[in-house]
Amino acid sequence: MAAIINQWAVITIVLSGIALTAGVFLIRSGNREAHMRAMLIASALATLFLVLYLTRLGLGYEKKYVGPEQWRGAYFFLLISHILLAAANLPLALGALWNAWKGLRAAGNLGNIGAPAARPFFNRHRAWVRWTVPVWLYVAATGWIIYLVLGRYGEVVKG
Ligand code: HEM
Fold first, then answer.
1. Contact at 8 Å (CB) between 62 and 5?
2. Which of 22, 62, 65 is nearest to 42 (CA)?
3. 99-144 pLDDT, tens digit each
4. Sign of CA dihedral 46, 85, 146, 158
5. Would the CA dihedral through 92, 95, 97, 103 be positive or negative?
6. CATH number of the structural domain 2-158
7. Residue 132 CB–ligand 1 contact under 6 Å
8. Which residue ranges does UniProt annotate as crossing the membrane (predicted)?
9. pTM
10. Using a 6 Å cutoff on CB, does residue 104 contact ligand 1?
């Protein structure tokens, strides 16, 4: 059961990374409406990931690395950076979403983002996403790598 939850957690975080990448391309091509939808989907998938991950933790499922010794250091670097940045991603995403939401309310609609009341929020949105996007992509990519490594070199210690 816990192994299946773990599999779904990886699927949701990878899909959220894909939706995030699509959202970046969409805003680059000027499609704000589709950008908003892609980012809300990315956020919903990341939230689902968090729920699945916490459920898995609650079930006590854990795997340890039993692969080649010379890769242990690299593996732990990946794992620790992944955990720290995953924790940082939550406030980063909330900051980006909050400013987008306030900006949208001040603008009235996405065609009016240049309105003086909306401008400061979208400027802040851009400042937040400069960090949010790379951190989120790193977390999604390393989550998938860790899953593959543990699939090959992992041993269940609690399940
Ligand atoms: C956490 C989720 C989100 C992320 C990671 C994100 C990411 C981005 C990125 C990378 C840009 C381009 C910034 C630049 O050109 O320097 C951007 C711009 C923009 N985003 Fe988002 N976005 C998110 C959610 C939203 C939502 C929900 C909305 C809708 C209300 C929205 C509306 C906009 C608008 C209107 C712009 C253009 C701002 C401007 O040209 O000044 N974003 N966003």
1. no
2. 22
3. 999 999 999 999 999 999 999 999 999 999 999 999 999 999 999 9
4. negative
5. negative
6. 1.20.120
7. yes
8. 6-26, 38-55, 75-98, 128-150
9. 0.93
10. yes
Sign of torsion over alpha carbons 135, 141, 144, 146: negative
Distance, in Å, from the CA atom of 156 to the CA atom of 3, rounded to the nearest integer, reads 10
In the reported structure, the alpha carbon of residue 85 is separated from the centroid of ligand 1 by a whole-number distance in angstroms of 20
Q: Among 71, 96, 98, 80, which residue's Cα sits nearest to residue 142?
A: 80
C-alpha dihedral sign at 1, 62, 12, 74: negative
Take residue 4 and report the two structure tokens written for it. Answer: 């299946």
Residue 133 Cβ < 6 Å to ligand 1: yes
Q: How far apart are CA 64 and CA 22, in angstroms?
A: 34
- Closest-lying ligand 1 atom to the alpha carbon of residue 110: 35
Counted residue by residue, the chain has a size of: 159
